[in-house]
Design brief:
Elements lengths: L3 E2 L3 E8 L4 E5 L1 H18 L7 H23 L4 H27 L7 H8 L9 H14 L31 H9 L2 H18 L2 H4 L4 H26 L4 H24 L17 E2 L3 H8 L2 E2 L4 H6 L6 H6 L8 H14 L6 E2 L2 H15 L7
Parallel strand pairs: 1-4, 5-6
Antiparallel strand pairs: 2-3
Length: 377
């Protein structure tokens, strides 16, 4: 069943004094918001794409990834010195994913497509696959945000229940405790799961819709992952004094750190109090305009933290990102007040958690609730 969005009247109609009329349909929200945001960029005379801040983030995150890796291969050291270096690489993996690859694959890194393609390819440095990511994230997640059964990011995972529409199991009772361990498995499992996910997309007819050459995609996936595993497992075993099990353990720890950061940051914007998980009606219709749906299913957090703003690549401005994915995250802090004010003018809720720990506490509460309440009928 194909899902679609349907605009409905607003509970609190917004009177546009400039236009001299009352706007009572949700569809007017996005057109007004887009006008307000575009006016900001025009007044400031700046591009909506990346700037020097983004380039600095790119340099920092790539350094966190590459420098420790080179040191591990070239300098003989004890395991207790290698361990923090491995963890720093994990931080770099998360940083590249959030600050570099994410903008690039949304086309917001640069006005030049080849630059976006180049830095979007940084996903291969993390063991991932560009096609899978763009389909899952750009298409499915951004279009059908927080809709159970369609948005794979809240799909049921055996030890974790992220949607109140998923079956409730005994293990979910303690997910508010064990979540941190399983979140860390995100990136290491993607190395294998990319293959099964691509097969699922093919079976569902999604790859045919986008006219994907499946042979080419599988060959690219196999080639990239083979090189990646050679670089991070085979090569260290060959040229460093560490035993094979130490290298494999280090590889797992590296990915656990990356997965934990990425999963946690993402869930703080979607599985928190106030972020809805609407179900379509029997005709496959979500009774809200798409932009209003995005507002109702996402949340911002820690907007005033310089460290969070720099490190997580705008994922703490998830409302702005979902409404304007083609705008680089470096601008979200400045357009967030515009989005919030416009939403309030239309009588729409703007879900903001003031700090990181407010968002984290809200997420843990949601995990506890989801681990106890039965599935929706």
């Amino acid at each position: 069943m194909e899902l679609r969005f349907k605009s409905v009247p607003l509970e609190q109609p917004f009177h546009d004094e400039n236009a001299g009329k009352t706007l009572d349909a949700e569809s007017q929200f996005m057109s007004t918001l887009r006008k307000n945001v575009n006016a900001y960029f025009k007044e400031e005379g700046i591009s909506q794409k990346g700037n020097i801040t983004l380039f600095m983030q790119t340099a920092v995150m790539l350094s966190l990834y590459l420098v420790p890796y080179i040191l591990l291969l070239s300098v003989h050291m004890a395991w207790w010195i290698a361990l923090p270096l491995v963890m720093i690489i994990g931080v770099g993996i998360a940083g590249i994913g959030m600050c570099v690859m994410h903008d690039a694959l949304h086309g917001s890194y640069s006005k030049k497509e080849w630059v976006n393609k180049l830095f979007g390819g940084s996903l291969y440095l993390l063991g991932g696959n560009v096609f899978n990511w763009k389909l899952q994230h750009n298409v499915l997640h951004h279009t059908f945000t927080n809709i159970p059964g369609t948005d794979g990011d809240i799909a049921e995972r055996w030890p974790l229940r992220l949607s109140d529409n998923a079956p409730l199991k005994k293990i979910h009772r303690f997910q508010y405790i064990h979540w941190f361990f399983f979140y860390g498995l995100m990136t290491v499992t993607r190395i294998v799961n990319d293959f099964t996910q691509l097969a699922e997309y093919q079976k569902a007819g999604i790859t045919a819709k986008y006219k994907v050459n499946m042979t080419k995609e599988y060959l690219v996936m196999i080639g990239v992952k083979t090189i990646y595993l050679f670089a991070f497992i085979a090569l260290p075993i060959m040229i460093t004094p560490f035993s094979w099990w130490q290298v494999v353990a280090g590889f797992f720890i590296m990915h656990w750190v990356a997965g934990f950061i990425l999963s946690t940051v993402f869930q703080l914007a979607h599985v928190v109090e106030g972020a809805e998980q609407p179900l379509p009606d029997e005709n496959g219709t979500i009774h809200h305009d798409w932009a209003v749906h995005e507002l109702r299913t996402t949340a911002d957090f820690s907007r005033n933290s310089r460290f969070i703003n720099f490190f997580v690549g705008g994922l703490n401005f998830q409302i702005e990102h979902h409404l304007f994915p083609y705008i680089s995250h470096v601008h979200y802090k400045n357009i967030a007040p515009i989005v919030e004010e416009t939403a309030k003018q239309f009588g729409l809720e703007y879900n903001l958690k003031p700090t990181f720990f407010d968002a984290l506490g809200s997420h843990v509460k949601m995990l506890k609730t989801l681990g106890a309440q039965p599935a929706r009928a």
